[in-house]
Amino acid sequence: MPAEQLKAGDTIGVAAPCYVVEENKYDKSFAALSAMGFRIKKSDNLHKDTYGFSASEEERAGDFNRMIADKEVRMLLFGGGSVSNEILPWLDFENIRRNPKFILSYSDGTTLLDAIYARTGLVTYYGQKPSTFADLTVYNQRQFWSHFVDESPAVFEPNSEWTTICGGSGEGILVGGYLENFGLLLGSQYFACRSDRKHLLFLEDYYDYHKPADVSRYLSHIEQSGFLENVTGLIFGHYSDSAQSELSARLERFGRRNRIPVVACDDFGHGVNNAILPIGVSARLDADARNLVFGAA
Predict the structure, then answer these.
(1) Is residue 30 pLDDT above 90, yes or no?
(2) Rounded to whole angstroms, how far apart are CA atoms 200 and 282?
């Protein structure tokens, strides 16, 4: 069963499955979420640095599993990092299936969001992290509200100009997230999507982390996987504040070679706009009209 919409007084759990959070780093975020009417519960090992860069796998997975089982927690929110894949063997997927709640993250959180959807069927949410709320824009707040408080949106709301790279349309189940994490997850036992279903792929990367050649490497990995046979379109999110002709050319080759529509925008990813995309929801992309409709497949 799906998670129920949030209301004032509900508790949002904040954990750190991907990295270690410095003391007081989220103070402004917690204050903003409290002002929005929510209670905050921090995981036991949020600030623990057993490995220097994070708590141990068992500590982080334990926090995650306890937050999921906690009846008081209605949403689990966490940020990016580098080591989310370490805790996959320790996650209690049956616990997640029995206790559906909103799970929201981005970047390195991609690994957990897609694995949870693939293993349990629960819709998970890509696009925002705790620090999103430290300096909350009107658009980002509206995105949060529309997915988790009001009725779920029927159409994606843009806040940037969409660029059609390869025209056409496609529909399927939305999956994706940060390019590197999604590529690494492909072929693992934690992401065995049904081959009889079509998928609509969304990806994002960030210029400061990966140059166009690096992006091309991961796109090639996806192209060489069997998964791409069931992909009907690609939505690529924010990459840099300046135009990147090499990336645009690579995305065009990706679309034409695989005969799928491709669009690019600055609405989700590591930029100012932190739009939310639900992993596991049916959707239809019209690259020529430059829109995305939820619940259309």
Answers:
(1) yes
(2) 8
Q: Over the stretch 109-161, which tens digit does the pLDDT of each residue have?
A: 999 999 999 999 999 999 999 999 999 999 999 999 999 999 889 999 999 99
CA–centroid distance for 26 within its chain = 20
Distance CA 95, CA 263 (A): 37
Q: Which residues contact 197 (CB under 8 A, 6 or more apart)?
A: 172, 173, 230
CB 20 within 8 A of CB 49: yes
Dist. CA 10–CA 57, nearest whole Å:
28
pLDDT in tens, 243-280: 999 999 999 999 999 999 999 999 999 999 999 999 99
Residue closest to 112 by CA, chosen among 51, 171, 67: 67
Q: Are 84 and 17 in contact (CB under 8 A)?
A: yes
2 pLDDT above the threshold of 70 = no
CB atoms within 10 A of CB 27: 10
Q: Which of 15-24, 184-193, 235-244, 260-269 has the lowest mean pLDDT?
A: 184-193
135 to each of 14, 21, 270, how far by Cα in Å? 17, 18, 14
Residue 214 tokens read as: 């690096």
Nearest to 6 by CA among 40, 42, 46: 40
236 — phi, psi (to 5°)? -110, 130
Query: What does each C-alpha distance from 4 to 33, 60, 97, 99, 151 come to in angstroms?
Result: 18, 25, 14, 11, 10
Do residues 33 and 135 make contact, with C-beta atoms less than 8 angstroms apart? Answer: no
Residue 173 pairs in a beta bridge with 199, 282
Neighbours of 262 (CB within 10 A): 26
